[in-house]
Every structure is written in structure tokens, then in C-alpha cells.
Design a protein that fits this description.
The structure is a homodimer. Chain A is α/β, with parallel strands linked by helices. Chain A has 14 helices and 14 strands. Chains A and B meet through helix 1, helix 3, helix 5, helix 6 and helix 10 of A and helix 1, helix 3, helix 5, helix 6 and helix 10 of B.
């Protein structure tokens, strides 16, 4: 009964690129491997014992309710906590009703695609962009366009032209400590792009998983503050409490949130009710600020150490963006050197990272950029891994042909 | 900047019907309300303390790993447990690699739609069918067809004709204790439809959330046993351990599971890692059979009590399907009586149920059927609620016009 055609997959599924990172992470599970490839938060900052005590409280106090079906929008006390916290953070009033709980902010990307992308619509992304967003949107068959980000943000002229000419259904960006580049929009660029003359139908999607992991200050306005009536803002507990619990949220205009809840209901009814209550109990019983401060100062140290090691060991022809927060450093090799060739050599010496071309739709950026994660490796691994990479770059620059060329 | 067009939603989202049940459940939260409307498992059978002890174990033993990102496919020991358990249950060998963990089996419906439905493809459903499946598939813009289920299963002639004429992309069914009718396919119908001459591209989607809640026996072959090479089988812990933890799974051909994992990765990266480990620990430390037996005998008693009350209080012109498992009874009023009119009257007397037309795409079934849930109400509520409904049906049959007519 089966034949060569079977199974007959939809057109959209053929569109979703497989994750190179997923493949590379399989290699990274070898214990001797120094991995700058992943995007994992440091597990030493998961509040394991406090979450265990929160879980015990939730289950003993209200176990039956915590284990039952719940409404799609989420556990109201948690949504209310997020609304109040984010109101202070964003400088405008957010109500609990405008907060939708998600299975990590990744689900927000899928739902944004579901809600706003007809096949053939334009999705305007930063170039490079978050691979998971490309995957999520790809299922809805948009036409992708990248807008180049330089230093303080998107090139204003190109951005205005792209918004005008393409009339994108969505503009997707990560203004704070971007994945993969670690880049942050400055105030000028935020204000400029927020005042662009764009199609009245464009939804702005501001992805902010790293926003709380700032090294210096957090005084820059978020796009949702500047354009609250047309921005879907995605937040997440993944980088600050636990990614394994899969809890993020969306904040946005009420009509968008209402429709997003319908789409979420069709997708999975609701997010884990027990996990929402455990995280809420943790937030009630502990100081989030104190917890965040300890993550911030540790990640800042890690980033500084990686930068210092790069200064010590990388040829001066290699450039990079010094991150003001988040988890990543984006480095650019001299033109002509391929990050993928460096990866082949580095893997042989048990060091891995992600070549930059994987963060573009269609995979092109000159091939000489790469992303390095500093949140997860130990300090010893940072020093040793960067040294190995530096030696390999030096030797590649001296014209030794890479083994796969 | 905003205008009347904004926000400009995709065509697909306009397709998703809002859930009437969602609306009616808002009414059901009033404490004086007797609700036969929901589809909630009885929380007295949630193993609260055992899950609390499992959570404590998981977090103290391996907390950092349980709170970290995990692979999309799920926690391998849990997938392996499910594979072994389901192999015994289904009578053919299932490997852990063929099991994909989901956020409840509802997510399986979304992913099946994403994987197999191009706009305009045919989705063949039972009539009536599970509303959540209609919602999930609707987002992928298929053309829906219903196949009538009579007693032992789909009418074989109509089924063969529909499969041949429509060449559906998917055939979706709940052969065991269906939601909403409680109906179960007999062996003859299972074997007949499994041997139908269908399009080589049709995927069979066997949804089995109630399969473990059988009252008599479980000796009937599942469709995945009869057609393993073309069936996606969806299972769930929601009805037997906890729906709030949102854990279900899909089993199917390897190439389908591989693509489904890619689609899931794009949707939400992975399911709650902590919850998967808690459920696994629960399964290792306790007898699932013993737990299931206590649910089975309780639900069987509840169903019997509801049937007896219906025999006592409903006019003999009302017919119903006596369920052999699951959580629902489907009753049919005499022709001409509207279940929606009965609901209006019943609500005024604090009893609610779901009129049957909500379980059809387009909402037609003659309007005289209704779904009653017996898993969640107390025994006192069952007796009292059925009595009130019976009196109302009697008075409607005596020609008193309903208040909204």
C-alpha cells in the first residue's frame, strides 16, 4: 500500500530548515569537547533548591488544581506578576489580560507566524537573525528579507526603504544583546525605527529573551514602549530561571493577544500549569532582583574573560562586537577565511562554535563570521578554547590550506 | 498610524473556530453549577503526593539537567518506557526512537496539520468529532468532510467511497471511547477500514487519549497495530496522570517522526523537561496498572450511575450510547427538540452540558444531540443534574415553548 511518494508532506514543512546547531550539539555532548556552540544558560544559576521548595509548596497547598487543565491564557497570578514587573521595566502600564503564557518564547514565534503570515507575505528579519525564528516563520511560507545591522542598529535609510517598499507582514528583531551577534540597538536607532513610516499592517515582533542579562544598564527604551499599539513583545524565563520548564510570555495589543490565545488553544490547549505555579511561587518567595544580579555579574565576567582571551590569542585582523549583555560574541575573521573551515579544524581539537552563515536564510554572509557562547563554558574552557581557535586562525592566515578545502 | 485594517490577521487564523466549550466553562466555574459540560478528568485520581515525591527526587538527584534545555524528541528514559509499554499494549514492537514527546496530544494534532495539510487538502473526520482537532486542523485550511459513525464504527460503504473519492490527506479518528460520543469501533469495523483501498498518500491519525480508561476489556486491535506503516498514533498522560502537566506522545513511522520533531522544534523547541522527568520517576516508583485500575473502576461506576439516572429520569424517547470506557455519554433527544434550547433552560437551573452541533464543522447534526461528562461531577451532582435535565426534557416534549424560542 505504501509507495515512493509516502508520506506526502505539506509544502510548508519542506520549507523549515533543519537546525545545524541541533546537529553540532550532538557532537558537543562528548565530555572532552569545549563548546562555544550552544545557547545554553549556565546551569549553576538555576535555582534548583528554591524551585524544589516551590514545587513542594504548590503540590501540597493546591496540588489538584495545579495538575488539572487550565485556561489557555495561563495562571492569572503569574500573568499579573509579569504584568506588574514588565510595566515597571517598560515604563507603560501592562495589564495581566495582555499577557499570554507560552511554552518558551519560541512558541510566540510560531504563533506570530500562524497569526500574521500568509504564504508569500514578507518577513523582515535582522541579518543575521535567530535561527529558531527563521525555522518558526518558514513553516508559514513567507518571503524572507534581511536588514543589515551595523553597530547601533539597522541602517536607518535601508530600514525605511525596506519598510516602505516591502510592506512586511512582520518585522522581527532582537534589540537587546541579539542572538547571534550580541549587538544592542542604541537609543537613536530605537527611536528612529519606531518613527518610521511603515505599512499600517506591519506587526513588530520584539524578541527579548536576554533583556534582563545586561552588564551595564537597562535604560534603553524597548520597542514595545515606543510602539505599544503595534508590537508583540516576547519575554522568557528560560535564560533567567530555567529553560527546561519552557515558560515564556507574549505582551501585545488586546485583540492580538485574544487571537493569539485562540491559536495557542488550537496548538496545545495551554502551557504547563504546574510549571507556571512553581515559577510563580519561586517569584513570590524570593528576590528576583538578587537572583538576576548574580547572573548578570557572572555572565559579565565570563564575557570579559572571553574578550581578554580573544585579545590575547586572536590575530589582530579578527574583529568582534563587545556585548553589553546576553550570552554571545560575534567574531569576524579576515575576508577569505571561512568559519566553516575553521570549525572543521577546531572540532579536531575538541573546540566547537557556530559558523555565522547558519543565521541567514539562504546561508550567506561571506562565510567569515562566527558565534561564540560565553554563558555555559567554564573559565578554564574559555581560555583554552579561545587559545586553540587563535592558533588555528593564525595558521590559516599563514596560508596552510584547511583540510577540507 | 493604526487604521481599521489593523491588525491584519492571516487567512488561516480566521478559519479557527472559537471554542464554545471554552465559553461555557466560564459559566461552569460558579460553585452552584452542576457541570456535565467539561472534559476534565477527576482530580481525586491525580497522584498528587506521588508526583510531589517524584519531583523532589528529580530535583535533588539531577536538578540542573532537569531544568536545562533538552532535545526536541524528549527525555529518552520516558520515551523508552512509553515504547515498551505501548509495544505490549499494541502487540507490535515500538522503539523509543519512534516516540516523540508532545505538550499533550493536542500538540500532535497541530503538528499533524502542519506536516500533512496543504490548503484545500481534505481532512476526513468522524461526525461528530473532537472540537480541538477541528480547531487544530482548521489553521491549515483543509476542506473538512465528516464520515458518520454508527454503532460499531464508520459505515463501511460510505468510508470506502469517501477514501476513494476524496483521497484525504488525513483521516482522523478516535476509535476508543470517542469524544464526544463515547462510541467504540468494534473489531469488524477496525479490520474493515484498515483494509480499505485508500490513496497511498493518506495518513491515518488515531487519537487515543481515553484508551486506558476501559470498563470491560482492551482486547480490540488499535489502528496503529493494523496499519503501523501509515498511522500516527497519539497517546496522552492527561486523562490518567495529570492534564496540567501537558504530556502526550506520538508514535509513528520513523520518517514521519523525524519530520514531526523538526516541526516541533520550530514550534517550541521541546516539551517541559522537568515534567517529563517527574512523570518518568512516578512511573518507575509506582504501579501504573494499579493506578489505572482504580481510575477504571471509579469511572465505570460514574458512567453506570449516570446511565441509571438517565433511565430513571429521561423520557423513553431519549436514546444514548452506553460507553465502554472514557468520560462521555452522547444522548439524542426526540427529533424536533433542540439541545441548545434545553441548555438554556438547564443553565437557569444550574446544570450545563454541551449541545452536539458544536462537534461538527459547520455545526449541524439535527441539533438534538448532546454530550454529558461523567468523570468530573460528584455522584450527588450526577443524580441531581440528570433529574433536572429529565424534567426539562419532559416539559419540552409536552410542548411548553422554551424561553428563547
Amino acid at each position: 500500500m505504501t509507495n515512493a511518494q509516502f508520506p506526502h508532506f505539506s509544502d510548508r514543512i519542506k520549507n523549515i530548515p533543519e537546525s545545524f546547531i541541533r546537529e553540532i550539539l550532538k557532537v558537543s555532548s562528548r565530555p572532552e569537547m569545549i563548546s562555544f556552540a550552544g545557547g545554553l544558560p549556565n546551569p549553576n544559576f538555576f535555582p534548583v533548591e528554591k524551585l524544589a521548595s516551590a514545587a513542594e509548596k504548590v503540590l501540597s497547598k493546591d496540588g489538584k488544581a495545579a495538575l488539572q487543565y487550565w485556561i489557555t491564557e495561563g495562571y492569572l497570578p503569574l500573568r499579573d506578576y509579569i504584568a506588574q514587573w514588565q510595566s515597571r521595566r517598560m515604563g507603560y502600564r501592562i495589564e495581566a489580560e495582555e499577557v499570554l503564557m507560552l511554552n518558551g518564547s519560541q512558541q510566540g514565534l510560531d504563533l506570530v507566524g500562524k497569526l500574521f503570515l500568509n504564504p508569500g507575505n514578507t518577513a523582515l528579519l535582522e541579518g543575521p537573525s535567530y535561527l529558531g525564528a527563521i525555522q518558526a516563520f518558514a513553516a508559514y511560507q513567507p518571503i524572507f528579507h534581511h536588514i543589515e545591522i551595523k553597530g547601533g542598529g539597522p541602517d536607518i535609510k535601508s530600514f525605511n526603504e525596506a519598510m516602505k517598499k516591502l510592506g512586511p507582514a512582520i518585522f522581527y528583531c532582537i534589540p537587546n544583546f541579539q542572538n547571534p551577534t550580541g549587538n544592542t540597538y542604541d537609543r537613536f536607532h530605537r527611536e528612529q525605527i519606531a518613527s518610521t513610516d511603515c505599512s499600517p499592517n506591519t506587526i513588530w515582533v520584539e524578541d527579548n529573551p536576554y533583556g534582563e542579562i545586561y552588564f551595564e544598564d537597562n535604560s534603553l527604551p524597548n520597542l514595545c514602549s515606543l510602539l505599544p499599539e503595534r508590537t508583540v513583545h516576547l519575554g522568557s524565563f528560560s535564560k533567567i530561571i530555567s529553560p527546561g520548564m519552557r515558560l515564556g510570555w507574549a505582551v501585545g495589543p488586546r485583540e492580538v493577544m485574544r487571537r493569539m490565545a485562540i491559536a495557542k488553544q488550537a496548538s496545545d490547549l495551554h502551557s504547563n500549569n504546574l510549571a507556571q505555579r512553581i515559577v510563580y511561587q519561586f517569584l513570590v518567595d524570593n528576590s528576583l532582583d538578587q537572583h538576576l544580579n548574580s547572573i548578570r555579574s557572572f555572565y559579565k565576567e565570563q564575557a570579559s574573560l572571553m574578550i581578554r582571551s580573544m585579545q590575547d590569542h586572536f590575530p589582530e585582523e579578527v574583529s568582534w562586537i563587545t556585548p553589553k549583555g546576553g550570552m554571545f560574541i560575534w567574531a569576524t575573521l579576515p575576508e577569505g577565511l571561512k568559519a566553516s573551515a575553521l570549525l572543521v579544524k577546531a572540532t579536531q581539537q575538541n573546540v566547537i562554535f557556530v559558523p555565522g552563515d547558519h543565521f541567514y536564510v539562504g546561508g550567506c554572509d561571506g562565510g567569515n563570521s562566527l558565534r561564540m557562547n560565553f554563558s555555559n563554558p567554564s573559565q578554564g574552557e574559555i581560555v583554552k578554547g579561545v587559545k586553540i581557535m587563535g592558533e588555528l586562525i593564525h595558521s590559516m592566515m599563514q596560508g596552510e590550506s584547511p583540510p577540507d578545502a
